[in-house]
Write a structure and sequence with these properties.
The complex is a heterodimer of chains A (208) and B (270). Helix content of chain A is 34%, strand content 18%. Chain A is of the alpha/beta class and 208 residues long. In chain A, strands 4-5-6-3-7-8 form a six-stranded mixed β-sheet, sandwiched between helices. A two-stranded antiparallel ribbon of chain A has the order 1-2. By secondary structure, chain B is an all-alpha fold. The chains are: A alpha/beta (208), B mainly alpha (270). Chain A binds chain B through residues 3, 5, 36, 39, 42-46, 63-64, 67-68, 70, 72, 74, 76, 78-84, 88, 91-93, 95-98, 100-101, 124, 140, and chain B through 7-8, 10-11, 13-15, 17-18, 21-22, 25-26, 93-95, 97-105, 108-109, 259, 262-263, 265, 267-268.
């Protein structure tokens, strides 16, 4: 993939593949292009050259089918509705993920259980801690049972419990034949599983 | 195909429900809107006491005329102003990003965001009209309940314009000035506060080329029993035509705007 921001070429022939059942880590310095790479993979922005595909689906050509198979966690702590409760945020997400109606309740329940949100589910999202918000954001990412999850700095604000829950969710996804790709500037002190390790550097993706 | 449509409608309903929950969480917001509409009515009620010119035979005549204009303006605001405002809030909160990558997609989400403001406008308009009837001696026709389906038709006629404003807002990021220009221009051309016949003849064509003029004409007919310029069925047909002809174009422009911002990488910027 090639992607420029103005005059600056951030990605210049970057390429990688996430195998079914695998967990892939993308490292790299701040500004190396990790988020740009994941945003392109999510179909959020387009590359200037190159393609991205998920089980032969492409985000431009097969938008809805592609989106059904994808879980996306943006960096930061946004992307949730502060005035909605934890449960309402999850219900909203599985509804716009267009899950069959009869599957939605079970999906919300499973996501609540997976990320230990049971005691928080009736609390408004702006009245929980940052770590709990991150668990909610992760629960939304995994709730619709995607085949691939793209996680931009998922460890942010998570305590040991949150990291454990995320590791378990990634392992479960792998068992189902799915793949997880996560990125962070460094892995030091981050207890998340990794099968393949790459670094985004000089606009390319290199094994490390 | 049918199941896809049902799932899409389910997604759009989720967006509407979300907006209702958010609005309800701000407990005084709807009351504040209704009170402000009531103040608007009071303002024009007292202004109408000064009006004694043709074609109005009494101050009450002018008040009836302008009340319907205010109700129509509220609807126009609901379709033209609120969706882009909601989208801008979503961009700031980072929630638009999730909508874009969701199976429902940004267009479905935007369609959903256009529904709740219309429902809220129907409620506040009902409150305002009830106030005007009880306190300000406004007399409504027996056909007044027809104003609800007429309002829905009017909203559909305006929806393509609302979608075009959202599309422009996604590309240029700031559409606030544009909305003010569009709504004030429409209010002027559609004769919300005065009869269109007062406009200079060279500008009167604008009055016919946009949906607010027939909309307010039809609403006046069902609410206060004024004669319409054309037969009511013809006006309803005109409004439906605005929606049917402009909606495919507006959807095309909106999807192009999303493609352009994805290519530029600015889709989640604000």
């Amino acid at each position: 993939m090639v992607r420029r921001w103005g005059e600056r070429t951030v990605l210049d022939g970057a390429s990688f593949q996430a195998e079914p059942g695998s967990i892939t880590f993308l490292g790299g310095a701040n500004g190396a292009g990790k988020t740009t790479l994941l945003r392109i993979a999510a179909g959020l922005i387009s590359p200037h050259a190159g393609t991205v595909s998920l089980a032969e689906l492409e985000p431009d050509r097969d938008r809805r089918a592609y989106a059904r198979k994808l879980g996306w966690l943006p960096a930061g702590n946004g992307g949730i509705y502060n005035r909605l409760t934890v449960r309402q945020n999850l219900e909203y997400w599985v509804a716009i993920a267009l899950m069959p109606r009869r599957a939605q309740r079970g999906a919300v329940h499973a996501a609540v259980e997976s990320f230990e949100l049971g005691h928080l589910q009736d609390r408004r999202a702006d009245r929980i801690s940052m770590g709990e918000r991150q668990r909610l954001r992760l629960a939304m990412t995994f709730a619709h049972e995607p085949a691939v999850v793209l996680l931009d700095e998922p460890q942010t604000s998570l305590d040991e419990l949150g990291l454990d829950r995320l590791s378990e969710a990634m392992a479960e996804l792998g068992k189902r034949g799915g793949a997880a790709v996560w990125c962070a500037p460094q892995t030091d002190g981050v207890a998340l599983p990794v099968h393949y390790r790459y670094e985004v550097k000089g606009g390319r993706v290199e094994p490390c | 195909m049918l199941s896809v449509a049902i799932q899409t409608l389910g997604g759009i309903y989720a967006v509407v429900k979300r907006d209702m929950i958010r609005a309800a969480s701000y407990r005084v917001a709807l009351v504040a809107v209704a009170v402000s509409e009531v103040f608007g009515l009071l303002l024009f009620y007292y202004i109408s006491r000064l009006v004694a010119v043709e074609p109005f035979t009494s101050p009450g005549d002018y008040f009836e005329f302008v009340v319907v204009g205010l109700v129509a303006l509220q609807l126009a605001n609901a379709v033209l102003y609120f969706p882009i405002t909601l989208v801008q809030q979503e961009l700031v909160a980072g929630t638009f990003e999730r909508l874009v990558i969701s199976p429902l997609g940004s267009l479905g989400g935007i369609a959903g965001m256009m529904v709740f403001p219309v429902l809220a406008a129907l409620v506040t308009n009902t409150i305002a009209l009830t106030f005007a009837v009880i306190v300000l001696d406004l007399s409504l026709e027996a056909t007044a309940p027809l104003a609800i389906p007429v309002s829905v038709l009017v909203s559909l006629a305006f929806a393509p314009l609302g979608l075009l404003i959202v599309a422009l807002g996604l590309v240029i990021k700031q559409a606030g000035g544009l909305i003010g220009f569009v709504i004030t221009g429409l209010a002027l051309a559609a004769g919300l506060y005065f009869p269109v016949a007062l406009l200079p003849s060279w500008i009167e064509w604008i009055s016919e080329a946009q949906p607010l003029t027939p909309a307010v004409d039809l609403m006046r007919s069902v609410l206060i029993g004024t004669d319409t310029q054309d037969a009511p069925a013809l006006i309803a047909g005109k409004l439906a035509l605005f929606a049917i002809v402009l909606m495919p174009f507006a959807l095309w422009v909106a999807s192009r705007a999303i493609d352009v911002t994805r290519r530029r990488g600015t889709i989640v910027e604000y």
